């Protein structure tokens, strides 16, 4: 006779179906946790920036001039944009918020990137978009050799 109630009955869903449902729920919750962790990191970096949060970079202060010599080399020197206490100003938090949300990157990664130096040789089919992307992601010193 078939059992209709209790464990192992025909009305009891198989273990595999419940397992898949639990795994889906775990995956969903982990994704939500990662999103929340990213938001927490972003808010913490905004707190570090303090109420002023603006260091005058958009007004032209702290930004060096582009120097293009006759040798075909162009170099732009830009201050790293961090406040003296090492926190990110509000404009940098807004500009690089996607970087700051990455679990393995964050504020420390952005700080390292802004202190790095990059040399790109050639601005052709690959060098041109590469130069654009590197400049947009906040590289500190950028040298382009054509």
Describe the structure.
The protein has five helices and four strands; from the N terminus they run αββαααβαβ. The chain is of the alpha+beta class. The protein has one domain. It has a four-stranded mixed beta sheet with strand order 1-2-4-3, covered by helices on one side. Strand 1 and strand 2 (73-78) form a beta hairpin. It is flat. It starts with 14 loop residues before the first helix and ends with a strand. Residues 96-143 form the THIF-type NAD/FAD binding fold domain.
Mean pLDDT: 71
Whole-angstrom Rg:
25 Å
Strand order of the largest sheet: 1-2-4-3
Largest sheet: 4 strands, mixed
The sequence of SSEs as H and E is HEEHHHEHE
Kindly report how far apart the N and C termini lie: 84 Å
Tell me, briefly, the overall form. Answer: flat
* Oligomer class: single chain
Q: pLDDT under 50 segments (min length 5)?
A: 52-78
Specify the structural class. Answer: alpha+beta
Helix content: 40-55%
- State the total count of DSSP E strands: 4
Strand content: 15-25%
Tally of helical runs: 5
Number of domains: 1
Organism: Zea mays (Maize)
Protein name: Fanconi-associated nuclease 1-like protein
GO molecular function: ubiquitin-like modifier activating enzyme activity
InterPro entries: ThiF_NAD_FAD-bd, Ubiquitin-activating_enz
């Amino acid at each position: 006779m078939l059992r209709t109630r209790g464990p192992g009955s025909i009305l009891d869903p198989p273990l595999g179906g419940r397992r898949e449902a639990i795994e889906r729920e775990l995956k969903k919750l982990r994704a939500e946790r990662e999103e929340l962790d990213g938001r927490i990191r972003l808010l913490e970096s905004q707190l570090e920036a303090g109420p002023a949060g603006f260091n005058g970079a958009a007004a032209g202060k702290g930004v060096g001039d582009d120097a293009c010599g006759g040798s075909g080399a162009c170099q732009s020197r830009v201050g790293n944009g961090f406040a003296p206490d090492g926190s990110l100003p509000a404009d940098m938090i807004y500009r690089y918020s996607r970087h700051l949300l990455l679990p393995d990157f964050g504020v420390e990664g952005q700080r390292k990137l802004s202190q790095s130096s990059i040399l790109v040789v050639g601005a052709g089919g690959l060098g041109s978009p590469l130069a654009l992307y590197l400049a947009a992601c906040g590289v500190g010193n950028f040298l382009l050799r054509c």
